[in-house]
Every structure is written in C-alpha cells, then in structure tokens.
Amino acid sequence: MNGIVKRFPGVVANDHVDFELRAGEVHGLLGENGAGKTTLMNVLYGIHRPDEGEIYIRGEKVSIGSPREAINLGIGMVHQHFKLVEPHTVLENILLGLKEPAFILNLKHAADKVLEISKRYELPIDPRARIWQLSMGERQRVEILKALYRGANILVLDEPTSVLTPPETKELFRFIAQMASEGRSVVFITHKLDEVVAASDRVTVLRAGRNVDTLPRDQLEKTKLASMMVGREVLFTLRKSPVVAGEPVLELNQVTVMGDKGFPAVKNLTLTIRKGEILGVAGIAGNGQRELTEAITGMRPILSGQVRLSGKEIDRESISRRIEEGIAYVPEDRVGVAAPQGLTVAQDLVLRRYREKPFSNGVFLNQREIEGNAETLVREFKIMVSGKDATARTLSGGNLQKLILARELSGKPKLIIAVYPTRGLDVGATEYVRSLLLRQREAGTALLMVSEDLDEILSLSDTIAVMYGGEVVGTFPTSEANVEEIGLMMGGSLRKN
Amino acid sequence: MPVFSLVLGFLSAAPLFLAVGVNPILAYRQVLGVFLNVDGLTESFTRGIPLLLASVGLCLPFKMNFWNIGAEGQLFMGAFGATAMVFLLPDSSAFVLLGSMIIAGFIFGGLFGLIPGYLKARLETNEVLTTLMLNFVAILWVDYLVYGPWRDPEGFGFPLTPMFPPNARLPWIPGTRIHTGLIVGLVCAGLVYVFLARTKWGYELKVTGESRLAAKYAGIDYLKLTLLVMFISGGLAGLAGMGLVSGIVLRLRHGISPGYGFSAIIIAWLARLNPLAVVPVSILFGGLLVAGDALQIGLGLAFATTSVFQALILLFVVGAEVLTRYKVALTWE
Predict the structure, then answer these.
(1) Mutate to test the interface with B, among A319, A347, A417 (most CBs of B within 10 A)
(2) Tens-digit pLDDT profile for residues B282-302
(3) A263-277, A449-463, B211-225: which range is least confident on average?
(4) What is the pLDDT of residue B174?
(5) Least crowded by CB within 10 Å, which of A55, A259, A297, A460?
C-alpha cells in the first residue's frame, strides 16, 4: 500500500501511509487509538475507498471497492467487533454471503469442509452451535474460520486479544505462527506492546495517521516502541504519594444483589472505602463485580443489606439522588451507556449533570452554560474534538473515556466507581486516566476500581479486594499483596477472611 | 429533490389514469388546480389541521423510540371527550363550552395515551401492539355511542349525534373559511418545538432515544418521562379530534376520521420529527387528500383510483426522502 490518504469530515485518518506485507510474515500494526490503524486496514478490505494512494497485491495494482472484492483477492479480516448473526449457527454464519451454494444448501458438505479447516489449524468448533451460546474467544474463532473458508491468504486481525483470556491469547499466537509458516501473511493490529513484541516478525508504527517507522524483529524493544507510538517518553511506573485514609465514605453491609439470571450475583458482601483510598476489586469478569457497582450507583436494586454514603443510607434512593449525593460512575460500556453516540460532545458532557444549576433552571436548559462547560472541560482534559457540535461518535476510544472522566470528575464527587477504566486504551491514554484517578485520591475522594489488569490494581490501589462467586474472598492492603495468592483467590481455590 | 420526486410520482400515475380512460393531462390540471384557487387551498388547510395536531404530537414519543401507532384512537377519544362536554353543558356560553371542549379533548386523548405508556414502562409490553389495538377500542367505543345512547333521535337512524349548538362550533379565522383550530395547531407546533429544543425534557427525550440504558445511567425516570410524553402526544391527537367534531363535522358520528392518526405517522417522519416542518407537510398532505376528492368529483374517478394515485405520490416522496441520504457516485470500471 503506497501513499494511502483517507479523509473523514474534520480529520485525516491516513496521511500518505505506506505499508508493506510480505508472504509468510506476521506484521504488527501498532499505534494509539485513533492513529489510523483500523482505517488503513479497512481501506485494504474495501470498506473505505482511499482518497489517494495505490494498493498492489502480489505485484499487481488493484482497486478494492468492496469487501467482496477483497475476499476474492484472498484478503480476510476479523473486526474488533464481530460481524456475526447471533441467533444463527456457526455454519450458517460461515456460509452467509457466499455465492457458492447457488440455491440448495449442501450443509453436510460445508460442515465437513469447516471441520477439516478447524482440525488442520487446531481451532475446535461445533458447526451447529449458535453464536449466542459461544464465548468471545470462540466467536473470534468463528470469524477466523469464516475468513479461512473463503480462502484468505492475507488475514487482518483487528485488536484480536482484547476479548481473549491469557490462555486463549497464547492459542491465537500459535495459530498465527502456523499461518505464517504456511507462507500466508497475518496483519496484527494492536496497541499492546508485549503482544506485538511476542508475536510479530516486523512492526509498523503509526502515529496520528502517519508512518513513524517499520522495525524488524531484532529491533523490537518495548520502551522504544512506546515512545514511537506516543511521540514522547512514557513512564511505566506511576508515582504515588502517601495519603492517609480518612473517615469511611462508602460502607456496604451484608449486601445481596440479584443477577440477570435470577440468582444472587453478590452475596452478603461487606466492605468499606475511606476518604483518599482506592479500593481495587480484582477478579475474573462475571464474579459479581458489575452487579456490585450497579448496586452502589443505583442501576440495580439490592435484595438485602445496607449501602451507606458518608453514614447516610442510600440504598432506596433513585439514581439521580445518588448523583446529587456525589457518586460518580465510569461504567464498563462507554458507547451504549456512558456517552450516547448521537449526542454532541457538549450534551454528553452534562449527561448526568443537566438537572443542576446553572445548566438547568428546572424547566429550560441554559445552552450557553452547557457550551461553556464543554469548552472548559475539553481544554482541561485535552479531549481531541473536531468541533463544538461534533457528536461523541467521532471520538476515538481514548478521547471518549477522557470525556466520560471529565464529566464525572467535574461534579466534585465524594465517591468514584470506575469499571475497567483503562480497558482498550492505548499507552498514553492509560497513563493519563490513571494519573487522573490518583489525583482524585489525593484530593480526598474515595475510589472503587474494578479491573481485570492485575498490574493496574497493584499499582493504583491502597487496598485490594478479590471477588469470586459474588463474595469477597480476601481483602488486604496492597503492601501485603502476593500475586500468586491473588491468582488463587480469583480462581476460587483460596479464601482469606 | 422533493419537486423531482413529485414529478416522478405524477408521471408514474399516468398509466393509471390512461387505464381508467382519463387523459392524464386533465387529471394533473385538476390536481394542481387545488393549490391554485382559494376554495382548494381553504380545503387543504382544513384537512391539514387534524393532521398537523396529531403529527406534532407524534414527534415526541418517536424521539424517544416509543412507537405510538395509536394517534387515531387518541383522536377518537378526544372527539368523544369534546362531544361529552356538549351533552353536559349545552347551554353555556361559547367561551365556556369551547374552552371545556378543548380541555376535555386534550385530557381524554391524553389519558388514553397513558395506558400504553404505563404498560410499556412498567411491564415492557410492546407499545406497537398496545397502541394499535387500542385504536379499535376507541373507534368502536365511539361507534357504540353514535349507534346507541347518543344517536340523534331525528337522524333517520344514521349513526350520528344531534348537530352541535352554535356555541359548540369553532369560529372561522376572520376573512377565511378555515376554522380557528389552525391557530391552535400552529401554537402547539411552536410549543412542542420549544419543548424539544430548549427544555430539560427535550434533552431527556433525546438521551432516551439514543439508549434507554444511557438514560437510566443519567438518572432519567423512564416511567415519568413516558407518561408525560404520552399524555401530551395523546392530548394533541385528542385536540385533533376535538377540532374535527367542533370545526368541521359539527357532531360526532361513525368514522369521524378517515385515518388522520395513521397519516400523521408518515407526516411526522417526512418532517424528520421537527414540529415546525410538520406544518407545511401537513398542509401539503391535506392538499393531496383534497386532490383525491377533486379527481372524483371533477373527472368521475372511483375512490379506489384516487387512493392509488395518492399512494403513488407518497411512495415517491417517501422513497426520495430515503434516497437523499445517499451520495451519488458515478464510477468507471
């Protein structure tokens, strides 16, 4: 790909980007959120048409107008958000859009072919299973099989590890290596440095839509790649000043919360967070962390027990009352919950605060105050926006999270509930978000942080609580934390209360 | 673009006119004539008033993805409420009687709108089904009244109430023969516009339309908002019904509305849920209805034929509405 230029309203996503992929190579495509990695690959896959530039496949100049043309050229792509029809079976999803079954579906024949591919690459799957029954890792496998079924020689994986558990990631890397050993090529889009170093033969780094450099395997070095990506030195360790925890802000007493499936997801849980304390909740996703945070913020009713904020019982109060009482909430789902995509940046920046003065007088909204608020926060939190009336949809992942934090912190909260605050963010944005949370701690706010990233929990928290099966199976100060023990607790084989 | 789609719609109807033995040019002249003389325009405005009110009301629930298909029923309940006032206060002054008819029309339509709103917010019932089915309840309730207890004893057995006394009739706008319901409609369009664009409820509607979960996160009370919106939406449809009995038909009868509540859905979307844009669209739509009458009277066409003609025009306008969102690109391969 030579000199690819792709413009979107207000931004140049790719500015004369060159990219070269060799046969039999795993090529890491590294960059921050919004650096243009996905756009570049979408151009290759025919989703976007480049405004300028040329694409050559095996020496031949091509013009790729649609994903179908890309597939015919042997290009396959697994998107970050899977494109699968959930009520349908694996096999139906793989066949969907193919011209091959002209009229009558020969399912048996197709199933055999799928199983053959799945066996050859050790990607076990049940072709008759329905997508909604599958884990995220299995769904990704379906996407990969779909591309292989269509005969992909060039496979593009967009942030493939963001949905995988560590063992699944290992399995994926094995598969990638096998692909490459057969002379096929894999493009591996990521912003995770460890992975790119572990899996790639060469790495191309993009920053702000431009090439920074392409490095061979023997020159891959984490700190160097990080500074290439961000454009400056990155600190991998945060400086944490000592803060003496004050009086209790949040107290949970014997709290039980019902989960979506009709069983208690949080059982008799008791915990306390004090002023200036960060409580890190560790645990494998699905062990009651989400239900716990929803119970505190009011998104989910509690079955029994008490929730107190600064000594006052709040467990029967509405969500809006709890916002007024000073509970800030950074939820897991940014796009669907925390920052509605069709609203403008200014509107999203008052989402949980629009009832307050001066934004509202009880009936009418004060447009000038709302816009003024947006200007202040955009400047203060360095949110990159293309204009005053830009919708949240135009923001990259990192900027969206900055927007959410800017709003939640601007209300001067007593308590911040942050769920996966840095998930999916690049190095620069992660560093920034973490420093914001630490600054809040210094200002005397109590924080509850849920994270899957143990390093994050260890480097930010004052106290760690490990959740398993809806219960806290261990609480201890971070200074006494032992990574092995935490791992055992997360797996449910150790209890320490 | 709208002009272009209208022309296409007209041309596509040519075979239809030829098939029933009418010169298409004559038919076109008849249709355009509606918009070129005072009587035709007056009639277009008159037919546009109930469309305007009901459609402005629909902009609100549609903004929050609440699919109110029940404007027709809410309109009938408004007509019922207004007529009930005539029976209750037959001898009051015009000011009192008309005032109470307006209020009753709004409240009856609004209360009828609360039912599906409550059911959706509390029990997650599908509002498309409940609003649609409640239409039949309202229409048949009015039928029961005009065939039964409220039937005019001197009406030769026709399903209608006695003629309203002069005090219960909406006056004409001075200098025209359009009833004052038009002014009510314009004021409501303005108020709803301000409601959507400037108030906190308008903001809440927008957030809820984006995502119900996001609305919950923002602390928006879905039940309260739904009830408020459906009361106003049903109330405005009810006002449309009040305008029909008090401004045009001057009594309650079987089939008081030929489906204004359903046409209002199309109008709301054509106007992209902008209450100000609803005003011209409603009046043009009214004109299209009048054109159908003109074709029947002037050229002796059957009702079915003119309905097909109207449908063709709408098909092209709605189709063009969708197509304008695409970019036209010519490529050479």
Answers:
(1) A319
(2) 999 999 999 998 999 888 888
(3) A449-463
(4) 86
(5) A259
Residue A43 CB coordination number (10 Å)? 26
The CA distances from residue A91 to A85, A105, B47, B51, in Å, are: 11, 11, 55, 50
Contact B62, B196 (CB under 8 A): no
> Where are chain B's structural domains?
56-275
Residue indicated by tokens 């607790």: A489
The pLDDT of residue B328:
65
Which residue type is seen at B127? Answer: E
Architecture of domain A248-490: 3-Layer(aba) Sandwich (3.40)
* pLDDT tens-digit map of B103-119: 999 999 999 999 999 99
Owner of token pair 């399995």: A171
B235: amino acid identity, one letter: G
**Does residue A479 have a pLDDT over 90?**
no
Question: Residue type at B92?
Answer: S
Sign, CA dihedral B179-B180-B184-B190, equals: positive
Residues in contact with B304: Cβ distance below 8 Å, sequence separation at least 6, in sequence order: none
Q: Find tokens 């925890």 and name the residue.
A: A245
Residue A363 — pLDDT band, cuts 50, 70, 90?
very high
Maximum Cα interatomic distance, chain B, rounded to a whole number of Å: 79
Q: Are A434 and A422 in contact (CB under 8 A)?
A: yes
Closest CA to A317 of A293, A298, A344, A340: A298
Out of B198, B214, B331, the one facing A340 most closely (by C-beta) is B214
User: What's the token pair of residue A18?
Assistant: 């060159």
The fraction of chain A above a pLDDT of 70, given in percent, is 96
- Assigned token pair, A10: 């207000």
Closest to B219 (Cβ–Cβ): which among A331, A340, A352?
A352
| Residue B149 half-sphere exposure toward CB, CA atoms < 13 A | 8
A2-230 topology per CATH: Rossmann fold (3.40.50)
Q: Which two tokens stand for residue A312?
A: 């006052």
Residue A31 has pLDDT above 80, yes or no: yes
Residue A484 tokens read as 């092995």
pLDDT of A235 above 70: no
Question: Phi and psi (nearest 5°) for B92?
Answer: -75, 170
Residue whose C-alpha is closest to residue A301's, from A314, A311, A310: A314
Given a contact cutoff of 8 angstroms between Cβ atoms, the answer to whether A27 and A204 are in contact is: yes
A2-230 and A248-490 in the same fold: yes
Q: Which residues of B touch A319 (CB under 8 A)?
A: 216-217, 219
Q: Quickly tell me which residue has 């009594």 as its tokens.
A: B251
Using an 8 Å CB-CB cutoff, list chain A residues near B332. none
Whole-model pTM? 0.78
What residues in B contact A62, CB-CB < 8 Å?
Answer: none
Mean pLDDT: which of A207-211, A393-397, B78-82 is highest? B78-82
Q: Read off the pLDDT of each residue in B66-85 and give the average, rounded to a whole number.
A: 97
- Estimate the share of chain B in helix, then strand, then coil, as percent rounded to the nearest 5: 75, 0, 25
